[in-house]
Amino acid sequence: MRIGVISDTHIPAKAKEIPKEVLEAFKKVDMVIHAGDLVDLSVLDQLKEVCPNVLAVYGNMDPEAVSEKLPQRIVLNAGNFKIGVTHGSGSPDSLMRVLSEIFKHDKVDVIIFGHSHEAFNEKIKGVLFFNPGSATDKIIVEYNSYGIIQINGTIEAKIIRL
Q1: Is 125 helix (H, G, I), strand (E, B) or coil?
Q2: CA 101 to CA 143: how far, in whole Å?
Q3: Nearest Cα to 61, choosing from 95, 85, 33, 38?
Q4: Which CATH architecture has domain 2-161?
Q5: Is the pTM of this model over 0.85?
Q6: How many CA atoms lie within 13 A of 101 on its CB side?
Q7: CA dihedral sign, ordered 70, 105, 158, 91
Q8: What is the distance between the alpha carbons of residues 144 and 70, in angstroms, rounded to a whole number?
Q9: Domain boundaries along the sequence of the chain
């Protein structure tokens, strides 16, 4: 299974649409996960045009029109692995602790998150923490990015710079 991962698109404030390179890459995935701060529900329509299987959570910058349609967190099974998805909140310094607390009873193998706009791909205490960064907003980071997670008996996660 191949999963395309995106977060913090902030459309239309930071871009009018998802970058074409991301949409092209997501034509080759089985599922797309958006880890919040869509800002406009049209983002889901853009993603569903290239991959009908789209899951999303809301983030702290999402207006009520988005947050009332999406959950704050999702736990899903992918192959033999359990994946938790949430946007994240608070200071970047405490983000991993906050995320761990959110999924402490779920025994997840992977936590997909956003919020910091900074790409992150690291195992901590046996759990893979994966933030694809932002494909549209470089306000606090050097580059835009998205992610691909490949699950085939093992998990391989990659950050792709735009």
Answers
A1: coil
A2: 29
A3: 38
A4: 4-Layer Sandwich (3.60)
A5: yes
A6: 8
A7: positive
A8: 24
A9: 2-161
H or E element: which one contains 46? helix 42-50
Q: How far is CA 13 from the centre of its chain?
A: 18
The residue behind tokens 């391989």 is 156
Per-residue pLDDT of 8-34, as tens digits, reads: 999 999 999 999 999 999 999 999 999
Sheet-wide strand order for 73-78: 73-78, 81-86, 110-112, 127-131, 120-124
Please list, in sequence order, all residues whose beta carbon lies within 8 angstroms of the beta carbon of residue 51, skipping any fewer than 6 positions away: 4, 26, 27, 29, 30, 31, 32
Of 157, 93, 85, nearest to 121 by C-alpha is 157
- 3-class DSSP state of 110: strand
- Dump pLDDT digits (tens) for 37-88: 999 999 999 999 999 999 999 999 999 999 999 999 999 999 899 999 999 9
Q: Which helix (H) or strand (E) holds 85?
A: strand 81-86
Enumerate residues 6+ apart whose C-beta is below 8 A from 65: 41
- Bond from prior residue into 71 cis (ω within 30 degrees of 0): no
Closest C-alpha among 105, 110, 109, 67 to residue 89: 67
